[in-house]
């Protein structure tokens, strides 16, 4: 896709998937706007890093669990650097639960970010896109392979992220006439800072390609889906897991 403005949600730290996506899109010439988790100091440093690539970069600290977050975020990016044509819904909320610990409050928190936040931001993006006269847009959602097997003690997370698969398929059909493609990426288990050495030792033998996934693996796929080469791909969940075996 011709370089434009890319909006990426859920940037948390130097080594996460969101930062890798921002870097890769910036290298392809996209201006970047990201949302962070309120980490003072680091996000400003990262913003300068992106600008050094030679593109513009804006940011906002917005709680995507709030009902008004979609309008606030799109207002912010439009005011700072312009209306985006690429939306990457990377933000997620995840807390281990299991059936003995699942509560209404825990479900609500997962729902607010993983489902409602993603869905409302996507449809608000599409509504505003339709008024711009632009011809090509991209929505790229992040999933975690919920359709490929159980995620024990992740009931709330697996359920709410799994809903994004259905949302991706249906929204893609509704807004295809606008020229917007809607796809999702499942990067599989990714070493983005949360894995202990024990977890790494357990997971690594399960990857057919011989290593654990890195944030840059997901970023390359997102960059492709944001490009002109992916203009004919929509409504898909692409599993990019390096041959990961769940058994």
TrEMBL record:
Keyword presence, Nucleotide-binding: no
Entries under CDD domains matching the protein: SDR_c
Keywords, comma-separated and alphabetical: Oxidoreductase
InterPro entries membership: NAD(P)-bd_dom_sf, Sc_DH/Rdtase_CS, SDR_fam
SUPFAM superfamilies: NAD(P)-binding Rossmann-fold domains
Domain of life: Bacteria
Transmembrane segments: none
Name of the protein in question: SDR family oxidoreductase
């Amino acid at each position: 896709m011709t370089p434009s403005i890319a909006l990426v949600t859920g940037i948390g730290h130097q080594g996460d998937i969101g930062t890798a996506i921002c870097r890769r899109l910036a290298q392809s010439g996209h201006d970047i706007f990201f949302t962070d988790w309120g980490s003072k100091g680091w996000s400003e440093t990262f913003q300068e890093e992106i600008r050094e690539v030679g593109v513009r970069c804006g940011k906002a600290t917005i709680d995507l669990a709030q009902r008004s977050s979609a309008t606030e975020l799109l207002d912010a990016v439009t005011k700072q650097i312009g209306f985006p044509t690429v939306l990457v819904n990377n933000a997620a909320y995840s807390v281990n639960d299991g059936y003995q610990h699942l509560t209404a409050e825990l479900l609500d928190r997962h729902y607010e970010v993983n489902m409602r936040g993603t869905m409302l931001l996507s449809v608000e993006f599409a509504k505003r896109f339709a008024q711009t006269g632009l011809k090509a847009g991209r929505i790229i959602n992040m999933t975690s392979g919920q359709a490929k097997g159980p995620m024990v003690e992740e009931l709330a997370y697996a359920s709410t992220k799994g809903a994004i698969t259905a949302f991706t398929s249906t929204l893609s059909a509704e807004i295809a006439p606008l020229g917007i493609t809607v796809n999702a990426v499942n990067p599989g288990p990714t070493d983005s800072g949360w894995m202990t050495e024990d977890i790494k030792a357990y997971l690594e033998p399960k990857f057919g390609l011989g290593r654990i996934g890195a944030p840059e693996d997901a970023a390359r796929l997102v960059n492709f889906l944001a490009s002109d080469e992916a203009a004919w791909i929509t409504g898909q969940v692409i599993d990019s897991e390096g041959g990961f075996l769940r058994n």
